[in-house]
Amino acid sequence: MQAISVNLKMNSVTATRARTINRATRLSPCSVKPCRAFRGAIIIKPDKSTPSQRVRVAANAMMSMPSTSTASVEGFGDHCFKGAVAKKYLSKYGETDKLLTDASWPSQPGKADIVAKAVLDWAVDNGASVYCHWFQPMASSGVRHGLSAQVHQTMFEFDKDGKPFFKFTGEALLQGETDGSSYPNGGMRATHRAGGYLSIDPLSPIFLREDTVFIPAAFVSYNGDALDEKTPLHRAVEAMSKEGTRLLKLLGYEVDGLINNIGLEQEIFLVPRHAFYRRPDLQFTGRTIMGKASARGQEMSDHCMAPISRATTAFDCMRQIQMECFKMGIPLKTRHREVAPNQYEFAPLFGNVINQTDQNLMVMQIIEEVASENGLAALLQEKPFAGINGSGKHNNWSIGTTDGVNLLNPKQINAASKNAEIFPIVMAAIVSAIDKHGDLMRLAIASPGNDFRLGAMEAPPAVISTYLGDDMTNYLMAFMDSGNVEAYVPSKKKLAFGANSISDIEVPAEDRNRTSPFPYGGARFEFRAAGSSQNVSLINTVLNTITAEAFAIVADRIEAGETPTAVAQDLLKAHSKVIFNGNGYDPEWPDTAVEKGIWRIDSGVEAIKKFTDSKNIELFEKMGVFTPRECEARRAILLDHYIGTVEMEALTMIDMINQHVIPSCKKAELGFVKKLEDAVKTLTKAVDEMHAAADEAEAASLARVLRLDTMIKIREVCDEAEGLCPPSLWTLASYSELLFLDTYPEGDLLL
Q: How far is the C-alpha of 220 from the C-alpha of 24, rounded, in Å?
């Protein structure tokens, strides 16, 4: 029995610490009196004796910045229960960290109690006395902070004398129950049946943040219907592994199983928090639904990969995000500025799709919270601002064996299998899956924010093709035509810089193609069209499901007597039309793609409706990923999510017009008031029509028209008014204030 020791003193890791960053904008200092500092607050006290001032930005940091000039990797993963960290605590109970690498440990007698005891010891040593099962409800993107749900519970009980003691059991670790009544369910749960049930996910490590232990878990209804994003992803990965392992065995290469690895590139915007508070649209919807473009945007290409300026809090914010993730075992390897002003990116190392998806959700949560502690607001929505690039989350996707051989890396798979036939067969299967199920791939990226992003010269168009490059394409076409099996060896070329003092370098024969939605990159495919606010579970559920079916089709035909090469040749002949190595931004390409029979679905709403097409229900049911009932529910939930998003945007626009735009126009004596009053009536009527729709499909179609036609026309009136209104009378933060941290220091705008 472990007694509880309560310490109310602040410690250096978990307590909130106020950091003061002084920025001189003039030569003389100002007087700054002590005052209470709130999270992300900007405290300004100008010196009345001079016109100059110094601005203090008080920002709370959860971890202190290094005070030494010596770099260190100590502490990485201390708050993630795996590897050496887990070994230290499990050894006390006769186990090692290898126990956790066996996904069956939760079902092994006695093991859960051992892990629970070790987790409790680790938690107490790190100042944690609370635990939760951490799960992922549907329809969270763009609205739910962290895209997750949890109920925090203390890890102690009381003895007969009322004295608390620490206790955490294997049963509490393995499963939980919560009220599932307020989560989207698409009709899968009756009103009077509210239970939601949780089971630990052994493929995603337990982690710790502040005083809480987080246990990744799957979430289902009383009848076993998936109510979350995680459960179908597990099913899809298992289907891909089952069918892929069967296919490889038929090709003479026996493996224990397959895994899907991904790497996610997370793009964000960081804007001044005081300006964020003057934008109801950003606060409620994540994007600006009105706003005149600033005189400067991204037209000079001067932001991409530019220095992360220390003149603002952005650099400290990014460092702090990396440090928090570092402690939790999340290796954010890359950080840089992106194309648009105030746009940034983080990217981790690749890993297992289950764990990487979970880590990305926590990264998104940490980004938002740490930004607030540095006087900033993080915008994760796909298109926060009109006229400049939006944000994506490139989903780099590959398939590997459980012992680390990448099936999409020709050198690796050829060396491991000693069978050069495997690589072109795998590629032929994947090409066929893309061509056959491009509608599902388009559905998977149909987040509301992608309405404004796809095909806008910043993301691939709504045409689902794949880029393989001329080198790979020629190889597969030669294989298709002749049936001759040769090992694919990617060619290289020397690249000269034209200066004797600069050495030549070796590069791939194929250049990048950023205009393709699903390009091959040498050892992986990159789903470039994923939205920045998305939980990528559905994306990878679809990719793994369609690949599983393709592997199954090849395996079935081989078992029926066809040769592997003949099957692959036939698939390439039927489906190679989906390979497009040209410019996806070419205005003529979408129409050309339709003529070729390639999937093109411009409307995200129409893409969502494809969930219940007969071929897709049959696919998901056959692969054991979704039941027909779950397909119907997911369709309804995704449509409702779209409708709800648009309704919030429309109601916010009404409020902004009534409370900001019209009053500003009246004060400035501008002649827009009648137009704006009529616009409010138009918006109100459109929302009423959505409510009166016969079903969610009709309502979503009306919502799309409202969003992409009606609201855009009304925005034009608001933006014109802003352009003519004196800044002193315009009460909404402008694009100039929001987008240029380097030019508009955080505090100056409030003086």
A: 55
For residues 422 and 479, what is the distance between their CA atoms, to the nearest angstrom?
12
SS (H, E, C) 449-516: HHHHCCCCCCCCCCECCECCHHHHHHHHHHHHHHCCCCCCCCCEEEECCCCCCCCCEEEECCCCCCCC
* pLDDT value of position 491: 84
- Quickly tell me which residue has 């149909």 as its tokens: 446
Render pLDDT for 392-445 as a digit per residue (tens, 0 to 9): 999 999 999 999 999 999 999 999 999 999 999 999 999 999 999 999 999 999
| Residues 6 or more apart in contact with residue 686 via CB below 8 angstroms | 650, 702, 706, 710
Q: Convert 106-129 to b/e letters by CB count within 10 Å (16 or more is b).
A: beeeebbbbbbbbbbbbbbebebb
Q: CB of 134 within 8 A of CB of 215?
A: yes
pTM: 0.90
| pLDDT one-digit tens code per residue, 473-499 | 999 999 999 999 999 988 888 899 999
* 3-state SS class at 606: helix
The tokens of 671 are what? Answer: 């002649």
DSSP letter string over 297-339? Answer: -STT--STT----TTSSHHHHHHHHHHHHHHTT--EEEEEE-S
| Residue environment code for 137-176, b if the CB has 16+ CB neighbours within 10 A, otherwise e | bbbbbbbeebbbbbeeeebbeeeeeeeeebbbebebbbbb
Pair type for strands 258-272 and 343-348 = antiparallel
What is the three-class DSSP state of 565? helix
SS3 per residue for 708-736? HHHHHHHHHHHHHHHHHCCHHHCCCCCHH
Continuous H helices in 517-627: 537-559, 564-575, 589-596, 604-609, 614-622
Query: What is d(CA 100, CA 129) in angstroms, rounded to the nearest whole number?
Result: 22
CA distance 717 to 726: 16
Beta strands 195-200 and 212-221, pairing class: antiparallel
d(CA 98, CA 103): 10
Looking at residue 23, what is its pLDDT?
29
